[in-house]
Design a protein that fits this description.
By secondary structure, the chain is mostly helical. The protein has a single domain, classed as MetI-like fold. It is 70% helix and 0% strand. The longest helix is centred in the N-terminal third of the chain and has 32 residues. The chain is globular. The two termini are 41 Å apart.
């Protein structure tokens, strides 16, 4: 047993963290419970927390009401392509900024990071015009190309991790006659896997939950992603809340699986960004 006394500040800190955790979990619990309620139970005053009875048929009805299978496939393969391409481009750019000393590389890196301060709403109309001129509107390429080719946060994350690696590894490879691509793919990339894993998870979650850009660029039901398809449960004058909540619970299953199984990589990757160059 630890003989040290527990400080009051520690107790207050844990109480505050516990309260914050409860507040953040409440919306999820409300959605989960509402997904097995009838429409009448949802609008009961005062509201009932535990459904009586549980309406489990909301889940099969939600799946049957809309083509969720196709939407799941669309969301998954779009997210997978974006993750793979962004991991490659961001890691290569991060290596270039961290280890390859070229003229003006610090200035270019700062300007690159400055793009993170530009709200996405500012670039929506120019991006829409570009996709229209390229005749990509209504296709998944309008979602894949812009997201795959540019991610300032990813470059920053990869650069921070790569800069923490000892220069002696690269110098030894150069002495052995290795080229820059060989150094990157055979030495640097295996060492930055924790950071790449964390970044890949962030990209996947962001793409899976993306609603605004599919809403702007897609116009056919067969091309819709899961978040966009959920919007169909909302009508002009009424919303089928039980089916909407059930569909929402179905849509967050991949997100929960990723978070549960990759918590360590997420925390490790974020912690690494604070390492000194």
């Amino acid at each position: 047993m630890n003989s040290k006394k527990i400080k009051p500040s520690t107790v207050l800190l844990y109480l505050a963290l516990s309260l914050g955790a409860v507040i953040m979990v409440l919306p999820f619990l409300w959605t989960a419970l509402s997904s097995v309620k009838s429409m009448g139970q949802i609008f009961t005053v005062p509201p009932t927390i535990i459904p009586r009875p549980f309406v489990w048929k909301n889940y099969p009805e939600s799946l049957a009401a809309l083509p969720f299978g196709r939407a799941y496939f669309n969301s998954f393969y779009i997210a997978a392509i974006v993750v793979v391409v962004q991991l490659l481009t961001a890691s290569m750019a991060g290596y270039a900024f961290a280890k390859l000393k070229f003229k003006g590389h610090n200035v270019i890196f700062v300007l690159f990071l400055a793009t993170m301060m530009i709200p996405s709403q500012v670039t929506m109309i120019p991006l829409f015009i570009i996709m229209k001129n390229l005749k990509l509107l209504g296709t998944h390429w309008s979602l894949i190309l812009p997201a795959s080719l540019f991610n300032a946060f990813g470059v920053f994350l990869m650069r921070q991790f790569t800069a923490s690696l000892p220069d002696e590894l690269e110098e030894a490879a150069i002495i052995d006659g290795a080229s820059v691509p060989q150094i990157f793919f055979k030495i640097i990339m295996p060492l930055i896997k924790p950071s790449m894993a964390a970044f890949g998870i962030f990209v996947f979650l962001g793409q899976w939950n993306n609603f605004m850009y599919p809403l702007i660029f897609l116009n056919k039901t067969e091309t819709f992603t899961v978040p966009l398809l959920l919007n169909f449960f909302k009508g002009n004058y009424a919303t089928n809340y039980p089916l909407l909540m059930a569909g929402t619970m179905i849509s967050i299953v991949p997100v929960l699986v990723v978070y549960i199984f990759f918590q360590k990589q997420i925390i490790q990757g974020i912690a690494i960004t604070g390492m000194k160059n």
